Amino acid sequence: MSPSEPSAAPQPAATRRSLRNKRQTSLVKLIALVAFAGACGALLRLLVGELIPEQGMKFPWTTLAINLSGSGLLGLLTGVAHVRPWMPDWVVPTFGTGLIASYTTFSAVILAVMPSVPGDAYDGLAAVTYVSPGAMEMLTYLFLSVLGCTGAAAAGMTISRALLGQLGAESADLRRRP
Amino acid sequence: MISELSLLIVLGVAVGGAAGAVLRFLLDRYLPGGLLAANVLACLALGYLYGELSWLAETGRVAEDGLLSGPVATTLALGVLGGLSTFATVSLRVAQRWMAGQRLRAIGLWTAHIGLGFGAAALGIALSRLPGLY
């Protein structure tokens, strides 16, 4: 078989790989995209916090809703990227690492479950200050966040793979870092 | 609440969110365990900021025009630290490990993030109580 006529089986993978190599986005471009998307994600979180103010709530529902929705969306995106590997290489860093990961927050969750600090924090920290509830409620919040968000991410991945008709085709690709 | 949003805060959160996201992107890309480092760093800084602000409020010194004035604190907390820390990416990686059958690794990942994040936030609050830092 001549080199110009490769066998049929490895051809799609080779074509996809060469396409991805050709379209490799430069680091500077990626940083610019992540910065812009990160700004949008932070603003989106600010907006949701303003629409559903957490202050005065006995439970940080807003942060929970933000993290649940973000985890589900990231799962959906990763599932799509998994079954569509020829997607441009800037899509996952921009929408996953930039937009969605910046939209969700880990530090606010940890601070919320800290035993309350004497005195009131400054009012400007609207999304991280609220009436501090008891230890049991905070543990519940932590477990709800961890189990719920992991479940949402798994569901998102499964749903997008199922919708694209490739459910169970390959196991989760651990090398792909969103 | 919307009316309380000043242009300064919106700009600050946008710029801060961009900075935090880029820092996390680079940490995650070039440092093993970079995502954990990003989350722990954000917890440490948010703990310090929270402790410092509550200390100021407690002693009746409201930092209206100080280093940690309202817009600055919001920019740091909601912009930089919110952009630096992430919940969705951790959830996703845990879910991927769990679905790949690596149950212990999945549980260990959450344990590391929560344990170290909690410790870092406590350390941040403790640091804010040291005299002479602010």
Short description:
Chain A is mostly helical. Chain A is 61% helix and 0% strand.
Compute the number of strand runs of chain A: 0
The helix-strand sequence of chain A is HHHHHH
What's the helix-strand series of chain B? Answer: HHHHH
**Fraction in beta strands of chain B:** under 5%
From the spread of the alpha carbons, the general shape of chain B counts as globular
Q: Which stretches of chain A are poorly predicted, pLDDT < 50 over at least 5 residues? A: 1-11, 118-131
Could you tell me the radius of gyration of chain B in angstroms? 17 Å
| Span between termini of chain B | 30 Å
Instruction: Tell how many strands the DSSP assignment of chain B holds.
Output: 0
Main pleated sheet of chain B: none
Tally of alpha and pi helices of chain B: 5
Rg of chain A, please?
21 Å
Layout of secondary structure:
The complex is a heterodimer of chains A (178) and B (134).
Chain A lengths: L10 H12 L4 H25 L9 H23 L7 H13 L3 H7 L21 H29 L15
Chain B lengths: L6 H24 L3 H25 L11 H15 L3 H12 L3 H26 L6
Task: Report on the architecture of this protein.
The complex is a heterodimer of chains A (about 180) and B (about 130). Chain A has helices at about 10-20, 25-50, 60-85, 90-105, 105-115, 135-165. Chain A has about 180 residues and is mostly helical. Chain A is globular. Chain A starts with 10 loop residues before the first helix and ends in a 15-residue tail after the last helix. By secondary structure, chain B is an all-alpha fold. Chain B has helices at about 5-30, 35-60, 70-85, 90-100, 105-130. In chain B, helix 1 runs antiparallel to helix 2 (about 35-60), helix 1 packs parallel to helix 3 (about 70-85) and helix 2 (about 35-60) runs parallel beside helix 5 (about 105-130). The longest helix of chain B has 26 residues, at about 105-130. Chain B is globular. At the A-B interface, helix 2, helix 3, helix 4, helix 5 and helix 6 of A face helix 1, helix 2, helix 3, helix 4 and helix 5 of B. Chain B: It catalyses: fluoride(in) = fluoride(out). Chain B: Pfam families: CRCB.
